[in-house]
Amino acid sequence: MEVSRRGFLKVGGGVAGGTAMAGLAALGANLAPTLARAQELRIKDAKITPSICPYCSVGCATLVHTVDGRIVNIEGDPRSPHNEGTLCPKGAATFQLHVNPNRPIKVLHRAPGAADWEVWDLERAMERVTELVKKTRDETFIERLPNGKLVNMTPAIFSLGGATLDIEWNHLQQKLMRGLGIVAVENQARI
Ligand code: SF4
User: Fold this and answer.
1) If you measure from the C-alpha of residue 8 to the centroid of ligand 1, how many angstroms do you get, rounded to a whole number?
2) What is the pLDDT of residues 112-125, one digit of tens each?
3) Residue 52 to residue 181: CA distance in whole angstroms
4) Residues 186, 6: Cα–Cα separation, whole Å
5) pLDDT tens-digit series, residues 124-145
6) Which residue's alpha carbon is nearest to atom 6 within ligand 1?
7) What spacing in Å lies between the alpha carbon of 58 and ligand 1's midpoint?
8) pLDDT tens digit sequence for 164-178
9) How far is residue 97's CA from residue 24's CA, in Å, rounded to a whole number?
10) Ligand 1 pocket list (CB less than 6 A)
11) Distance CA 33, CA 47 (A)
């Protein structure tokens, strides 16, 4: 590939404003083989574990590549009959769900009216959640409707599951919620 002085300066701008790859692509370089090779090296000798995208109820099949127990790549599983190796942009970003320096790894609590978040240890947070659930349930529990019908429920608590909760978690969540008399149970994955 020949690069003119003008083109080279354009690449320099591309590097400053984006990535070297973007700059080279701007010059019309075919980067497909390079990218494919880089990807190949990244997953070379990696262990492959079949999995499922956690984000929605489509449940696209994925392949998780790990090296020394660390995830290095996640991509669609071409053997899957329904996603055939493809993933939507959200599913294609599953890697960042696992490997992400911006992911909060501590419990943050902001007291009512407070402007700042406070770091809590998990045990304290779980105790607080338990305390509030019990208090709310006790205060709002309805055993019977005015017509005498037995309902044993609370209309004051709503459970909303996230798409990253797996089926086993959701099964247990349902049992816990129904056991507490919570009837408003929903999951983002159904939306
Ligand atoms: S979020 Fe996208 S990739 Fe994941 S299961 Fe749903 S459609 Fe598939």
Assistant:
1) 40
2) 999 999 999 999 99
3) 31
4) 58
5) 999 999 999 999 999 999 999 9
6) 56
7) 6
8) 777 788 899 999 999
9) 29
10) 53, 55-56, 58-60, 83, 87-88, 90-91
11) 23
Report which ligand 1 atom has the smallest distance to the Cα of 163: 1
Q: Collect all residues with Cβ–Cβ distance below 8 Å to 31 and sequence separation of at least 6.
A: 21, 24, 25
Dist. CA 120 → ligand 1 center (Å)? 33
For the CA of 87, the closest atom of ligand 1 is 3
pTM of the entire predicted model? 0.60
Residue type, 130: T
Q: Which mutation among 51, 52, 56, 63 tests ligand 1's pocket best, with the greatest number of atoms within 8 A of CB?
A: 56
Q: How far is the CA of 53 from the centre of ligand 1 (A)?
A: 6
Spatial neighbors of 187 by CB under 8 A, at least 6 apart, are 160, 161, 162, 163, 165, 170
* Cα 61–Cα 62–Cα 67 angle in degrees, nearest 5: 155
- Tell me: pLDDT of 180 over 60: yes
